[in-house]
Amino acid sequence: MKSRNSKARSAARLAAVQALYQMDMEKVGLARLLDEFHSHRLGAEIEDAQYAEAEVDFFDDVVAGVNARRAEIDALIEGRLDEMWKMSRLDKTMLQILRCGTYELIARADIPTGAVIDEYMDVAHAFFDKKDAKFVNGLLDAVAKDMRV
To answer: Residue 50's beta-bridge partner residues?
Structure first.
């Protein structure tokens, strides 16, 4: 069973994927996006659904980090895609999952590789089937092997 802190991190990861998706789709600026999530989404109740309390600082780090290092992160992802695949073919939600996971692998050495991969596989399960979650596992594992010693 996950600890309260672990659940808060998991909620922050899911929210980060959602926030980055919204940023891409609506072209929302970072400051406005973070403010909206802080005020209305993280730990809030929306249409009778209670959102889990998220670790706000961790959420901010992932969202701002992916935003700041997007070109570097995208190059790492694209370098691990099969030559027949282009990033533009990836589902928009899948792309955000891979970006967040890649960010944590390159910028958050304090979080074990296995934890990062497992967490983003769990996020993928919220949106996709098992095959797609395995894709997340494979791609993030390849990034980790190259980026973490």
So the answer is: 45
